Amino acid sequence: MKKSLLAFALTSATLAPSLAVAQELADRKSPLLDAPAIRHREELRAQRFEMGAGLGSSLAADFYNAVFVNLRLAYHLNDWLAISGTLGHNLTPDYKTGVTENLETSLKSRAPDDRGPMAQDALNGMNKMNQVFGLQAELSPITGKFSLFGKWFAHYDMYALGGVGAANFGAGKDACETAMMNATCPDVGMRLGANVGLGMHAYINKFLALNFEVKDLIVRTNRAGRDVNADSFTDDKDLSLTHNYIFAMNLNVFFPTVPKITD
Questions:
Q1: Residue-wise pLDDT tens digits, 181-206
Q2: Would you give the distance in Å from CA 254 to the centre of its chain?
Q3: What count of Cα atoms within 13 Å lies in the side-chain half-sphere of residue 162?
């Protein structure tokens, strides 16, 4: 019995300091508790204005291709959310697609008694995007850094955009004409719709970035200007929902030129 009591006393005396140290360590607050995931992080977007200009083009256009000169203005509310506005002006309104060229050739060579439209009537009814506009929110869930050949390192971000869009349509001939069987009337003027897409920034330095976007401008229009519902008139009843895909590449400047750095 005495031996058991002696062993228990010795064990308690040995473990007591260890238990005290363990309790002291448990009571200590970790220096990493509530600390940010990344310290001294450069917030390249937060509370900065973004201004840029560049070129763009239509993608998979039906009748007329478009080469745009772009303007872009954005304000980044924080490092992942921004409000932006874009403008594109078409420099090549008469740049025909292969479909239009083939259609024109086919109609010019048709027989006199064919019931199809004259080539010029068909061309007069087609509309063209003169300007495109966008007002959207941009969400940037993906950011990081990449390198080229292990020599050049750059920050990047990828974002999704969505908001209001508009296209101002023009045509080779604005007046409506009525042929023997078909009404020809180009759909011209401003058409409002939706604007969705994806974009990316590749930062050259802390205030310059290359910007790439692919957008879908969704509006109601009548691309060919033809009487779709066969009521002998071409009007708003002949409009249909169209997807206008646009690629843009800009060089953008951020203000202020020095980004915020986190703690």
A1: 456 788 999 999 999 999 999 999 99
A2: 18
A3: 3
pTM: predicted TM-score of the whole model, two decimal places: 0.80
In terms of Cα–Cα distance, which of 230, 196, 247, 245 is closest to 54?
247
- List, for residues 222-258, the tens digit of each pLDDT value: 998 888 887 877 888 889 999 999 999 999 999 999 8
Cβ atoms of 127 and 169 closer than 8 Å: yes
Question: Tell me, what DSSP letter sits at residue 109?
Answer: T
Contacts 24+ apart (CB under 8 A), 236-243: 239/187, 242/218, 243/216, 243/217, 243/218
Residues 6+ apart with CB under 8 A from 177: 121, 124, 183, 184, 185
The single residue listed with the structure tokens 């031996």 is 3
Distance CA(88)–CA(67), nearest Å, equals 9
Rounded to 5 degrees, what are φ and ψ at 25? Answer: -65, -35
